[in-house]
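User: Can you recover a sequence for this backbone? Please restate the input before giving your answer.

Assistant: Of course. Working from this structure:
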């Protein structure tokens, strides 16, 4: 019992960490690219993801010959239907002519009115019957008789022509159910899935299905799938692999630092601290956001490096010779609180970002660092405050650089940093936020050849309801020189009503009587029985009595341009040329125009705004904090010297090696502010302690141990294969490395000279 009472706080922390770690695995780990996107363009990215192909399971088969590819494609299709993973196309029982005729009245525009009027002339009717006679004596004769009786005037062709325009714009024309390359040895099929493409469990099921199917396919053939499911699997797979590699590497490096700087059993608590704080922080973040991104979770290695800093400073302060331990702890506490404040303010700046993952990282880090500070000041001192701790040697002795040498280094860093800022390239593509295997990259290249979209763009009309979205799409279509194909087939309730009225006006008694006379005359000339067309007029009377409404065709089984958005609204997708004309038209018609090029420009512009905002807030918050603490403008400005040096080294090397950075490379900039200031604060506190007999609280090995621990936790991300994590790790190695160098070698010379 005495043991439990003595170590109650530590036992409680470990128990909380274990419980949170257990609960953590029952909550979802999310990976959605929308969480990585600024709020201003999140709607555009979500819409871009809703392209006609995005909700499809794209299955591509390859073979050495056309026959091999076709056989493999057909076998995959049959197995997919048997498995129940894809939707079967429920075509209407009626024939295609009847389907088109039944759909025509609700889509009977003014232009169709003029076309129909032309078809009801004697000359056009004669031409139509000539076509029918040719079909009667062809292989299509068994269908021609039905077609003539059902549609003697060829009215269904009006709707067929509209579908032809839509098929051309969507680039979904294919033969025998498959899209083919020029050689015919690569075939693609598009299937509708029964489940949401963002569902990870379903994605794994599809992956298992294809893994089991591949050995059963004909020899020399290969099959793979693309679409949202594949992207989900690739990102999650890469991040999970990275989490393992990064975590192992981080703890190995932290262990090496421990062996070099500490080598005492009690100091092991310092490197157990990350385990204590990361699991509760991850659990709390999951609760607040309803899940946690893999990117946020991988950021745990960063927090691991940061969290040990407080315990490192406490350890060395209590190891100081000839110092009262309680007094030493009290004096070092001021430094730790200031360190915590600067780091917390930098992470707090991320909360003002519109990127959801930035907010997650802020909550995750603030929670972990708060627990780390509590443990370092309230729990660990009793384990460090003993004679065994005092066997620590005086440690590393580093001579300060002369002022001229320090000034020269600073000048060189500033010069190259300014050059680097102008030379650094920001990645413009969304692909920089995704990562995938080499196999995926090869498969994607094959798919892009079959579904080239470089010259196409998406034009969206939005609405709170489906009908409002359809109506807005029609309004948008009216301001274009050519109507949008989707607006002529998928019409709003208002337009349906207008079209039905137009249909009724067109087929007045005089028109019907004239049509009957024309058919009787043409029937006598061509040898048809006039009674064969009675079915057409029966159908026509039904449409005029509005009975056709119940049988109106549902074309969504073939193609559905309507999509639902996460906010509960709806949108209609149109595929248009990627030109400035359609971009301007979208603005005039209150639509949204999206193309790959346009989205990249928007992403770049918004990323820059996000970075400037977060960096500005981080600098402002920290400047106010250090100014309040030191009450000196000169000292406050000196606190930013390591930050400036680290940033200059970072941008100079990025530009020199021509490394593109993405959105998450910029997240490091506000963190660099807080980290660089921490090292400057350490040196300032040490400088002021010189005449107060407290300089022993700030040995150089404490700064090096803390800095290298942070560098180990952050820099190991460079080992990650995911683009986001790699860039963050690279920026950490360069930025933090530069800050540590400046704090150890450059800053002391300026403090001695000007303070």
């Amino acid at each position: 019992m005495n043991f439990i009472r003595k170590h109650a706080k530590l036992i409680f922390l470990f128990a909380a960490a274990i419980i949170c770690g257990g609960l953590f695995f029952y909550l979802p780990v999310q990976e959605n690219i929308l969480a990585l996107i600024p709020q201003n363009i999140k709607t555009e990215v979500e819409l871009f993801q809703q392209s006609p192909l995005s909700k499809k399971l794209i299955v591509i088969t390859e073979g050495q010959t056309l026959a091999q590819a076709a056989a493999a494609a057909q076998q995959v299709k049959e197995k997919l239907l048997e498995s129940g993973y894809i939707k079967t196309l429920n075509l209407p029982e009626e024939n295609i002519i009847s389907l088109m005729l039944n759909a025509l009245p609700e889509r009977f525009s003014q232009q169709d009115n003029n076309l129909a009027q032309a078809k009801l002339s004697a000359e056009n009717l004669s031409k139509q019957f000539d076509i029918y006679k040719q079909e009667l004596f062809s292989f299509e004769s068994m269908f021609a008789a039905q077609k003539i009786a059902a549609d003697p005037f060829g009215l269904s062709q009006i709707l067929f022509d509209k579908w032809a325009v839509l098929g051309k714009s969507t680039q979904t024309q294919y033969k025998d159910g498959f899209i083919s390359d020029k050689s015919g040895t690569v075939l693609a099929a598009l299937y509708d899935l029964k489940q949401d493409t963002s569902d990870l469990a379903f994605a794994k099921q599809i992956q298992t299905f294809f893994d089991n199917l591949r050995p059963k396919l004909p020899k020399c053939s290969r099959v793979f799938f693309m679409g949202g499911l594949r992207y989900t699997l690739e990102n999650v797979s890469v991040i999970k692999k990275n989490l393992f590699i990064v975590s192992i590497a981080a703890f190995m490096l932290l262990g090496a630092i421990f062996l070099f700087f500490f080598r005492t059993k009690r100091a092991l608590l310092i490197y157990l601290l990350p385990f204590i704080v990361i699991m509760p922080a991850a659990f709390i973040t999951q609760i607040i956001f309803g899940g946690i991104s893999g990117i946020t979770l991988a950021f745990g290695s960063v927090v691991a490096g940061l969290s040990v800093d407080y315990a490192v400073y406490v350890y060395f302060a209590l190891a100081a010779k000839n110092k009262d331990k309680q007094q030493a702890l009290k004096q070092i506490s001021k430094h730790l609180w200031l360190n915590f404040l600067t780091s917390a303010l930098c992470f707090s700046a991320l909360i003002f970002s519109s990127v959801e993952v930035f907010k997650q990282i802020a909550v995750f880090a603030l929670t972990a660092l708060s627990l780390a500070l509590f443990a370092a000041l309230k729990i660990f001192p009793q384990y460090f405050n003993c004679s065994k701790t005092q066997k620590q040697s005086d440690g590393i002795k580093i001579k300060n650089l002369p002022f001229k040498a320090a000034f020269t280094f600073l000048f060189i860093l500033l010069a190259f940093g300014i050059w680097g800022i102008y030379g650094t390239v920001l990645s413009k593509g969304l692909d920089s936020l995704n990562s995938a295997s080499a196999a995926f990259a090869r498969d994607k290249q094959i798919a892009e050849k079959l579904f080239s979209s470089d010259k196409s763009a998406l034009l969206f009309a939005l609405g709170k309801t489906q009908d409002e979205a359809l109506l807005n799409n029609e309004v948008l279509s009216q301001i274009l020189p050519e109507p949008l194909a989707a607006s002529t087939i998928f019409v709003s309730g208002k337009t349906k009503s207008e079209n039905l009225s137009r249909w009724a006006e067109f087929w007045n008694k005089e028109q019907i009587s004239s049509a009957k006379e024309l058919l009787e005359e043409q029937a006598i000339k061509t040898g048809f029985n006039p009674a064969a067309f009675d079915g057409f007029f029966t159908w026509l009377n039904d449409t005029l009595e509005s009975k056709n409404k119940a049988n109106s065709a549902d074309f969504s089984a073939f193609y559905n341009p309507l999509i639902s958005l996460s906010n509960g609204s709806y949108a209609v997708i149109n595929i248009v040329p990627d030109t400035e004309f359609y971009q301007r038209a979208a603005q005039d018609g209150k639509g949204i125009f999206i193309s790959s090029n346009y989205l990249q420009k928007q992403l770049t512009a918004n990323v820059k705004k996000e970075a400037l905002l977060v960096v500005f807030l981080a600098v402002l918050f920290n400047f106010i904090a250090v100014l309040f603490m030191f009450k000196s403008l000169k000292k406050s400005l000196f606190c930013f010297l390591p930050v400036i040096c680290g940033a200059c080294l970072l941008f100079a090397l990025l530009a020199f090696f021509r490394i593109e950075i993405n959105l998450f490379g910029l997240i490091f900039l506000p963190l660099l502010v807080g980290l660089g200031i921490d090292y400057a604060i350490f040196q300032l506190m040490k400088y002021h302690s010189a005449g107060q007999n407290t300089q022993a609280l700030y040995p150089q090995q404490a700064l090096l141990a803390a800095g290298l621990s942070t560098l180990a936790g952050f820099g190991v991300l460079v080992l990650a294969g995911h683009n986001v994590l790699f860039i963050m790790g690279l920026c950490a190695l360069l930025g933090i490395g530069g800050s540590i160098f400046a704090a150890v070698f450059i800053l002391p010379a300026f403090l001695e000279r000007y303070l």
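That completes the design. Residues 105-154+491-550 form one domain.
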